[in-house]
Backbone:
C-alpha cells in the first residue's frame, strides 16, 4: 500500500492501550482502592495531561473536547491526549470561530465557547480545569447535579465549581485559575505545568478537607 500526502498536516496519535482516564478513575472510586500512593498518582495524571496540552498549544492547536473520557491510558498508566475529532489548527489566529452544529460537551466548555463559539488555548485551559476536577474527585463528572441547560443559564452568575472532597487547596486554586471568566486572565498551560511540577507543595494539604477558593481568584503563578 502506498500513500502520498500533499500540503496536508498530519497528526500521529496512539490507539487505546488500556482504558480511558474516566473509566480508570471510576474503577478506583467504586472499588474503594484508595492507597497512600493515590495522591501522587493523581498528580502524575494531572501533569501528563497538562504536558500534552502545553505541547498542543505550542503547536497552535485547540482540542475543543478535552475531558477525562478523551484521555487514554497506556499500560504504564501514562496519560495520552486522544479524540482529535474536534481539534483545529489556529494558524495565525488567536481563536477559532466554529460554525458547526453538533452536540457539545457543555459542562467542560468555557463561556466564550458556549456563548460565541470562540475556541482558543484559553478555552482549552478552562476544560483542563474540569479535567483536574475529574481527576481529583476520582472520576466524578463536573456539575453532576445540574443539567446542561442549568449550566448555560448560570454562565453570567460567575458560578465556580466547588472543590472535590479532600482536594488539596493548591490543586483547587489551579482549577479556579483555569475558570476565570476573562480568557486572558486564565493561567496558561505553561504556568499550570510549572505549578504541577512542585509535588510537595501541592500535596501538602491532601487530607485537609478541600478548602475553597473564591471565584476569579488565581494562583498568581
Residues:
Amino acid at each position: 500500500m502506498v500513500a502520498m500526502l500533499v500540503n496536508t498536516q498530519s497528526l500521529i496519535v496512539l490507539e487505546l492501550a488500556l482504558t480511558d482516564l474516566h473509566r480508570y478513575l471510576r474503577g478506583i472510586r467504586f472499588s474503594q482502592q484508595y492507597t497512600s500512593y493515590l495522591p501522587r498518582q493523581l498528580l502524575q495524571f494531572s501533569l501528563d495531561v497538562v504536558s500534552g496540552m502545553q505541547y498542543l498549544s505550542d503547536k497552535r492547536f485547540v482540542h475543543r473536547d478535552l475531558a477525562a473520557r478523551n484521555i487514554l491510558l497506556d499500560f504504564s498508566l501514562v496519560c495520552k491526549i486522544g479524540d482529535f475529532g474536534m481539534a483545529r489548527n489556529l494558524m495565525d489566529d488567536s481563536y477559532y470561530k466554529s460554525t458547526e452544529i453538533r452536540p457539545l460537551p457543555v459542562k467542560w466548555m468555557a463561556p466564550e465557547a458556549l456563548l460565541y463559539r470562540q475556541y482558543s488555548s484559553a478555552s482549552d485551559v478552562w476544560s483542563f480545569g474540569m479535567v483536574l476536577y475529574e481527576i481529583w474527585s476520582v472520576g466524578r463528572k463536573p456539575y453532576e447535579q445540574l443539567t446542561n441547560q442549568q449550566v448555560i443559564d448560570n454562565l453570567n452568575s460567575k458560578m465556580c465549581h466547588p472543590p472535590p472532597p479532600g482536594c488539596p487547596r493548591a490543586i483547587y486554586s489551579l482549577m479556579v485559575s483555569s475558570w476565570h471568566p476573562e480568557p486572558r486572565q486564565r493561567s496558561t498551560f505553561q504556568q499550570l505545568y510549572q505549578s504541577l511540577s512542585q509535588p510537595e507543595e501541592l500535596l501538602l494539604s491532601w487530607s485537609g478537607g478541600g478548602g475553597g477558593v473564591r471565584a476569579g481568584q488565581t494562583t498568581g503563578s
